[in-house]
Design a protein that fits this description.
This protein has helices at 21-36, 55-70, 86-96, 111-117, 120-127, 215-222, and strands at residues 12-16, 40-45, 75-79, 101-105, 132-136, 154-161, 164-168, 175-183, 192-198, 201-208, 211-212. It folds into two domains: 12-136, HUPs (Rossmann fold); 154-222, no CATH class. It has 229 residues and is of the alpha/beta class.
């Protein structure tokens, strides 16, 4: 049930993706909405159509819907089957809903990497200069592991998308190459690294918002690999 909010010059948008961090973000957004006595919105973005979500994704969505109802959110927004970068989708929703503050999860990318290669947050700041951001950090319980910044790897596929590549977790006729995707801990979108084998040598490229950052490297390494078609 929606709560009647007294203040309408402020509004909160919580951006969630798949994983345990989503519930934490929603709770943080609700606290801000209660403090400011303003409307609360929750958004999730996915490249897949809703009816192709697996059981785990569907379970997360149902839980977020429960929280949205429990906290009296104005709306739980699902933008599925999206081919656009997530930052542009978030910007569009934020503009349409007159959002003034956005809650998002922390990326695990190091400060040096952000300086030299940019970050998803920088993309958001460029797309949404009219809103304030609240970046929720993620506690790291594993120390000393070289992969401590990444979740367990999952099988993933590359799909040619104009002059670049994007990752897909479902094998379809459009998929061309196969590898393992390691998602950054704490990020709410598909940021991380994609590893693949070519001529018995392991390669890896960075992924930002579903897309390969250096498509030229991918082309030079794997366009000679037989397609999965």
């Amino acid at each position: 049930m929606k709560k009647i909010r007294g203040r309408m010059d402020e509004s909160i948008l919580v951006c969630v993706f798949y994983g345990p961090n989503g519930e934490r973000l929603i709770k943080r957004g609700n606290k801000l909405a209660e403090m400011l006595d303003c409307p609360l919105y929750i958004l999730t973005v996915d490249a897949l159509p809703f009816d192709e979500f697996d059981a785990e994704k569907s379970a997360y969505v149902e839980r977020w819907k429960e929280l949205a109802d429990e906290f009296g959110a104005e709306e739980f927004v699902i933008r599925d089957n999206e081919s656009r970068p997530s930052a542009k989708v978030i910007a569009e929703v934020a503009h349409d809903l007159n959002i003034t503050q956005i809650v998002i999860g922390q990326t695990a990318r190091s400060r040096w990497e952000e300086i030299t290669k940019g970050s998803f947050m920088n993309s958001l700041l460029r797309e949404i200069p009219f809103a304030d951001f609240h970046v929720v950090s993620v506690d790291r319980t594993i120390k000393g592991d070289e992969h401590e910044e990444f979740e367990k790897g999952v099988r993933c596929y590359l799909v040619k998308d104009a002059d670049t590549y994007k990752i897909s977790f479902s094998q379809t006729k459009e998929c061309q190459y196969e590898g393992i995707f390691f998602k950054e801990i704490g990020t709410d979108f598909n940021n991380g690294i994609f590893k693949f084998m070519h001529n018995n040598k392991l390669y890896q490229v960075e992924v930002t918002d579903d897309r390969i950052e250096e498509p030229g490297v991918v082309r030079s390494c794997i366009e000679k690999v037989p397609s999965l078609k």
